[in-house]
C-alpha cells in the first residue's frame, strides 16, 4: 500500500495520499491548496491516478486543495452530507463506504468540532479529522460546533474502535504523526472525564483565539475556490 503523510507547516495540517499500489487509483484526504503542485508531483512519480479527494470537514485554518485538484485532475470531491460547501460532488451519509481500486473507507459521522465533521475508517487506521487529535480534541466553539456532540462522537463512536486502531488526525502541533485509540483513551487529557457535562465544561472554557486564516478560509472552502479564484479575490 502507498500511504504518504504530508505536512503543511503554516496550519500544521496533515494530508494523506493513499493507494493500493504504484500505477493504481489514488485518494487524498484533507489537501491544502498551496501544496497542490507537491501532491501532483507525488502522484506523477508513483504513476497514480487521483480519482477521489475528501475533506473531513470545512476547515477554518487553511484553504482546501479539493477544488484545485478537481480542476487539474478531474477527481471527485467528497464530504459528509452535512457539508455546506457549494461544490461537493458526492456527499456521504453515516456508515456509507467510499472506495477506490482495492481500498475501502467507511465514513463515520462524528459531529462536534463542526456539524459536518466525518471520520474515515480504513482497515487498521482511522482518519479522525479534528474530532480526535493526538493528546487533544478539536475545539467546539464555532461552525456549529458542540461539546456535547463531540463527546458522543468521541466516546460513543471513535473510542469504541479496537484499541490498536491507528489514529491519523488532520493536525498535530507537536510533531507527532499518529497514535492509537488505546493510547488516546488512556492518555489524552481531554478524554479523562467521567461525564458529558465534565467534557463540555472543559471545552466551553478554552477561550481560544480564532484561527488567523478563518475569515479567508471558511468562505473560500464553502464556495470551493481554486488557486486562481483565491488570488483574484485577494486583489
Ligand atoms: Fe478544523
Mean pLDDT: 97
Largest sheet, order of strands side by side?
1-2-3-4-5-6
Tell how many strands the DSSP assignment holds.
14
Q: Please give the CATH architecture.
A: 4-Layer Sandwich
Distance between the termini: 42 Å
In CATH, the topology is named Metallo-beta-lactamase, Chain A
Can you tell me the number of structural domains?
A: 1
For this structure, what is the CATH homologous superfamily?
Ribonuclease Z/Hydroxyacylglutathione hydrolase-like
Concise overview:
The chain has 235 residues and is α/β, with parallel strands linked by helices. 26% of the residues lie in helices and 27% in strands. The chain has a single domain (2-209), classed as 4-Layer Sandwich (Metallo-beta-lactamase, Chain A), CATH 3.60.15.
Describe this structure in words.
Helix 3 packs across helix 5. The chain starts with a strand and ends with a helix. Strands 1-2-3-4-5-6 form a six-stranded mixed sheet. The chain is built from seven helices and 14 strands. The protein has one domain: Ribonuclease Z/Hydroxyacylglutathione hydrolase-like (Metallo-beta-lactamase, Chain A). The chain is globular and about 50 Å long. The chain has 235 residues and is an alpha/beta fold. A hairpin with a 5-residue loop joins strand 2 and strand 3. Bound molecules: fe (ii) ion. The site of fe (ii) ion has 6 residues, from loops.
Amino acid at each position: 500500500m502507498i500511504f504518504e503523510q504530508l505536512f503543511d507547516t503554516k496550519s500544521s495540517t496533515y494530508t494523506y495520499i493513499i493507494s493500493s499500489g504504484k500505477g493504481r487509483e489514488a485518494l487524498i484526504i484533507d489537501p491544502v491548496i498551496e501544496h497542490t503542485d507537491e501532491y501532483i508531483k507525488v502522484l506523477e512519480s508513483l504513476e497514480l491516478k487521483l480519482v477521489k479527494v475528501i475533506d473531513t470537514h470545512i476547515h477554518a485554518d487553511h484553504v482546501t486543495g479539493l477544488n484545485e485538484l478537481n480542476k487539474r485532475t478531474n477527481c471527485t470531491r467528497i464530504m459528509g452530507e452535512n457539508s455546506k460547501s457549494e461544490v461537493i460532488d458526492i456527499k456521504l451519509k453515516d456508515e456509507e463506504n467510499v472506495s477506490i481500486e482495492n481500498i475501502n473507507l467507511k465514513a463515520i459521522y462524528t459531529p462536534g468540532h463542526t456539524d459536518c465533521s466525518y471520520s474515515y475508517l480504513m482497515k487498521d487506521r482511522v482518519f479522525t479529522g479534528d474530532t480526535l487529535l493526538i493528546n487533544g480534541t478539536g475545539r467546539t466553539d464555532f461552525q456549529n460546533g458542540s461539546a456535547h456532540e463531540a463527546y458522543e462522537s468521541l466516546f460513543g463512536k471513535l473510542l469504541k474502535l479496537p484499541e490498536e486502531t491507528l489514529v491519523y488526525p488532520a493536525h498535530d502541533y507537536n510533531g507527532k504523526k499518529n497514535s492509537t485509540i488505546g493510547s488516546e483513551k488512556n492518555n489524552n487529557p481531554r478524554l479523562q472525564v467521567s461525564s458529558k457535562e465534565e467534557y463540555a465544561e472543559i471545552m466551553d472554557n478554552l477561550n481560544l483565539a480564532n484561527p488567523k486564516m478563518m475569515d479567508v478560509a471558511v468562505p473560500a472552502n464553502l464556495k470551493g475556490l481554486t488557486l486562481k479564484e483565491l488570488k483574484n479575490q485577494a486583489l
